Amino acid sequence: MSVTAGTGWAQLRQQVRSLETQTESLFHIYSQYASTPKIPTKPTEEEKKTEAQIEDILERREALVSQLSRLLDSESALTSSALKQNNLSRHREILLDHRRELSSLRSTLTEVRQRANLLSTVRSDIDAYRSSNPAAAEAEYMLDERRRIDNSHNMTDSVLSQAYAINENFGMQRETLASINRRIVGAAAQVPGINSLMGRIGAKKRRDGIILGSFIALCMLALFFFR
Questions:
Q1: Which residues, in sequence order, are CB contacts of 42 under 8 Å at separation 6+?
Q2: Distance (Å, rounded) from C-alpha 103 to C-alpha 183?
Q3: From CA 130, how far away is CA 139, in angstroms rounded?
Q4: In this model, does residue 2 exceed pLDDT 50?
Q5: Which of 88, 124, 192, 213 has the largest count of CB atoms under 10 Å?
Q6: To 5 degrees, how large is the angle CA 107–CA 57–CA 87?
Q7: Is the dihedral of CA 193, 195, 196, 197 positive or negative?
């Protein structure tokens, strides 16, 4: 008897887990209807079908969880385990969470659809008003153009202000570098013999350059004559 009960429990749990996975997949599909760029004013046939599938699976899971509960109640205290009690509680929690998620998705879809319908109605009213009042529509168009021009001018002023600020910053940096250069030159002039030392260093560099150039020229001439 316990073997039969254990087999029945395992089969029922397998069905419940399979339906839970199906529910998650359908929730993913159902949630995408709310993110549709142009949501229809009324639910499409696919949306209705998906919602009906979710409701059907939730009802089937409710029945299976009830069967698991009755099966667990029919077992003796010796064969009934804490693990089965935890499994049953977990299936009930998941079922409750999925019912809440379905309700939340329905509310989200309703809000998105109402917002889209409201925007569509407002646009229709504006278009109807413009059609019946050409002069007002022309005036509104001119105001829009004026706002766009003002925005362009504001953007241009902002760019020019940034350019002036950068130019001023560059000027301050040049003054700072010039001041540093003057201080270095002044400090060098105050050290005895620094100018003559710098002159000798420069003369040595020029001499080394002349020697190196002469050596390279001789090598080139040697290659030319001994080819």
A1: 113
A2: 78
A3: 10
A4: no
A5: 88
A6: 105
A7: positive
pLDDT in tens, 8-35: 888 999 999 999 999 999 999 999 888 8
Q: How far apart are CA 81 and CA 139, in angstroms?
A: 80
Give the range with max mean pLDDT: 89-103, 118-132, 184-198: 89-103
Using left for φ > 0, alpha for ψ between -120 and 50, and beta otherwise, residue 126 falls in alpha
Residues in the chain: 227
Q: How far is CA 31 from the centre of its chain?
A: 19
pLDDT at 3: 41
Are 22 and 57 a contacting pair, CB within 8 Å?
A: yes
Judge whether 93 and 14 are in contact, CB under 8 Å: no
Q: Report, in angstroms and rounded to the nearest whole number, the Rg of the chain calculated over CA atoms.
A: 43
Q: What is d(CA 13, CA 91) in angstroms, rounded to the nearest whole number?
A: 9
Q: Are 16 and 65 in contact (CB under 8 A)?
A: yes
Q: Lowest-pLDDT range, 41-50, 61-70, 127-136?
A: 127-136
Average pLDDT of the chain, as a whole number: 79
Rounded-to-integer distance, Cα 143 and Cα 151, Å: 12
pTM assigned to the model: 0.51
* DSSP conformational letter for 1: -
